[in-house]
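Marked as duplicate of an earlier ticket. Keeping the data here for the record.
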Amino acid sequence: MAHQSWYRTYRPQSFEDVVGQAHIERTLRNAVDEDAVAHAYLFTGPRGTGKTSTARILAKALDCEKGPTGTPDGTCDDCIAITAGTHPDVYELDAASRTGVDAVREEIIGRVNYAPTRGHWKVYIIDEVHMLSTAAFNALLKTLEEPPTHTVFILCTTHPHKVPETIQSRCQRFDFHRLSVEEIASRLRFIAESESVEVSDAALSLIGKHALGGMRDAITTLEQLASFSGGKITLEDVEGLLGEVDAEVLFEAADLVCDRDAAGAFRFVAELSERGVDMTEFVKGFVRHARDLFVVAAVPGAGEVVDVTAGDRTRLERQARGFGTERIVRLLDVLDRLSSELRYAADQRLALEVALTRMARPETDLTLESLAERLEALESGATIAPPSRRDATAPHAASATRPEMPAPAAPSTPLDAPSVPVERGTLDVAAVKRAWPEIQAAFKKLRPSRSHLFDGTEIEVSGESLLVEFATDARLALELASDAKTIQLLRRSIASVLGMTPPVEFRLGRSAGSDAPEPGVLSPLIAATEPSAVEAAPSDPAERERMLIDELGAAVVSEIPNEENE
């Protein structure tokens, strides 16, 4: 005997067996019991949600030997024949393969006037009805509106918008919704026990998520996994076959971000890479997890709109309280950009590491959202990037500190700790030269419209002063850079990188492409600072951060179009 697929073996045989569509089953059962059956029904909804199965159960309820009854016994000859698809009064048509008007005339119009030969009712089940041609719909229209006595039409479709309004207006419409993860997992548990298959609850939940609300897809996946694993399905089997990411992994990633544990995030990504997890699939799962966090945080007490198990819902609520709504919004923004970048990233692992670092430590990001998060943390007295409990307990925490992490794609922000080892009052020429590109990048963040003025410039050290050398043909750029506001922002950029604000002077005299000024073309030095204005950045990190955030806010405002000084 040929093997029968599980989704056919465990197809619902009564209204009580249908999962997740209680509103529909109750209505149909009452209509049969009260002899109020409509002449035409339209069943709509995603695939695998029970449309055709419910249509067959309704046919059984009408033609059962004990019926019409809302509880067909399923054991009489009529019920058995309907289940096998051989009942002479129940016609099942596949509109996907018979779309033309001739099929409608032959299968329906030419036979509909004959009385039932065996049962009480004639039932026409038309699957994928939206595939019928316009001519076929028109031919069916009159018959559908005024069918003979004891004739019922049941139209099933996954695309109701493709069914003409004239057809829909003549039918009672029932919308089948997607099944929840818990509903699917519960049914899969019953099937697994019936088939003597050992499977964990976590694996069933993951299969349910992958099915996207369709029971048939979930049962097919369970059968495939049972064949693959030899009757014992593990969580690793499900992850390997489906490419899905377990909820535990997503909760762990969110915990690392919530705790601002950047070092732990790098170790986490390394583990994902070693296990061969698809980075794109992980990000998709993390996006769904962040969305669930946002819903739980934004609408307290409305956890039912999150399609997870009861245990995971409780964990989501606890984790959402640790994040806060505003921070989750920024999390979603970073993940949205990461999803786009992964399609073209040369190294997906690096892209994920940078994104997790930006989510965990906003001081590595210069977006307005990250600045708002940092300012909120300062106002609340929180520390932006404290050593996490994972760093404190891990034996190799010292080796995973920031200096050994891959550098973020964006330049160091003005709120970072000084990236050049310069003590107050001393300027190392080599260190300053290496830091000049970083200073230019910091200035560009503050005022993009003026950042081009320093293109092609070089930095020199003269005593305790910094000399910004412009090319000999860049006199206009030097004059524009001498604007008081531009000088102020340049000093702030230097302070953010060097940790101090030495006197700054401009000099014209370096030829384009030359590393040193040409003799004889030096212009008088233009002082960029007054002696009284020379000041070091505040020693208190919180004070320095507040000061620089104020400057950043002022710089952003100054870039609004139609500003007077532009």
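See parent ticket for discussion. The chain has 23 helices and eleven strands.
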